[in-house]
Write a structure and sequence with these properties.
Two copies of one chain form a homodimer. With about 220 residues, chain A is α/β, with parallel strands linked by helices. The first copy, chain A, has two domains: about 170 residues, Alpha/beta knot (3-Layer(aba) Sandwich), CATH 3.40.1280.10; about 40 residues, no CATH class. In chain A, about 40% of the residues lie in helices and about 20% in strands. A seven-stranded mixed beta sheet of chain A has the order 4-3-2-1-6-5-7, sandwiched between helices. At the A-B interface, helix 3, helix 5 and helix 9 of A face helix 3, helix 5 and helix 9 of B.
């Protein structure tokens, strides 16, 4: 089994052109001696500029993506090469992390790495970047079972879901990489199942830690 | 049951006076328009200055403390008031987080909050700060069972440990808030038990997520 872990519709992107002349963006870019178009959109810095975005409530949260990513890559499952992580962004870029990838725990270093990747878009290396919608990504990775996690899904115990995933060859788990809201209809249709693992809405980084842990336990039980 | 979760000997402190005149520290303080003595020591920024510290390998990693903290406070167990978090620093300060505390997910905001707390040392509020060694902290909180987690401990399945903790009234779990090394002898003696929950050394933030999750499950089973 290899778990394909997808952080989907992630609130990770470079500052879009309509915001380049906003004062909070210009100040941040100058302070960091960067172009406005090559820095990450970040609500904690660009809040006032983001008020101009109609879907701003689900954008500009690289901090959440970072937390979620680390809760997958720091685990034994990932270190053993049994999990692979993908970040699918809201604007349909996919960052795929290779097996040895160990993303930086320092947020500033993570931010710098993401900016470099989104500007240079390398086609190979420890992290590769390409254009793909979520359905294209899931189809392309050849998954034999994909589960989206959402409060809109059918309630299922996480242990039961992990047991199913562990019996597949290339299962995919998809969590939303955004602070509020639900998966877009265009992406929902890509899942084999939509599951709710808790009574309440859990943060993506908490879901990531729990899913990986239960899959790790389920694959151990099978040995 | 209320779980007392302690991040111990944490690599979190203000820049110590002997490093105030180091160039990497001065540059950082100037850029942020702060005094050198009121910013957090951070290896990702002050690496060259930290080479002067003999125990630098276990200091200056507020990023790890942040990740670990969020993996406790974002959980249902904590949101339900059944977990309380403490950060005990290597230089024996204790930050105690009140029930409603929701530390910022943005690292920059977390850093600013920690700096304010360590400078002002409020005795009450959502987060209070006081002087205490780890043994003093554990004694003062009135715990009836304390488990330190370490690769030096006796192997035990996490589910079994969580089951024991869930049967106590005020169990304490202690994880190391440092990147490398082990608990200091002066602190080891404070634990009722020292447990190893995995074959390999896990990052503190991974341990935090797993412990809280298993305790949450164990307390649900008891209902």
């Amino acid at each position: 089994m290899k778990l394909h872990f997808v952080i989907a519709e992630a609130a990770l992107e470079l500052v879009p052109e309509p915001l380049w002349r906003e004062s909070s963006v210009k100040r941040d870019a100058e302070r960091r001696a960067q172009e406005a178009g090559s820095i990450l959109l970040d609500r904690s810095v660009h809040h006032s500029a983001m008020l101009k975005l109609s879907d701003g409530y689900r954008r500009g949260r690289p901090d959440l993506v970072h937390l979620t990513l680390l809760n997958v890559t720091s685990t034994p499952l990932h270190q053993d090469g049994k999990a692979r992580v993908y970040i699918h962004t809201l604007d349909d870029s996919v960052l795929e992390f290779g097996e040895g990838a160990r993303p930086p725990k320092s947020y500033a270093r993570f931010r710098n790495l993401m900016e470099k990747l989104l500007v240079e878009r390398p086609e190979s290396g420890l992290v590769s970047v390409r254009d793909a919608t979520l359905p294209q990504l899931l189809k392309g990775m050849g998954t034999d079972y994909s589960a989206g996690l959402s409060v809109q899904g059918a309630p299922e115990r996480l242990e039961a879901l992990a047991g199913k995933l562990a019996q597949k060859k290339d299962p995919a788990v998809v969590v939303g990489g955004f602070p509020r809201g639900h998966f877009l209809p265009r992406d929902l249709k890509a899942f084999d199942t939509l599951v709710r693992i808790d009574e309440r809405a859990l943060d993506a980084h908490v879901v990531a830690a729990r899913v990986v842990y239960e899959v790790e336990k389920a694959t151990k039980d099978q040995r």
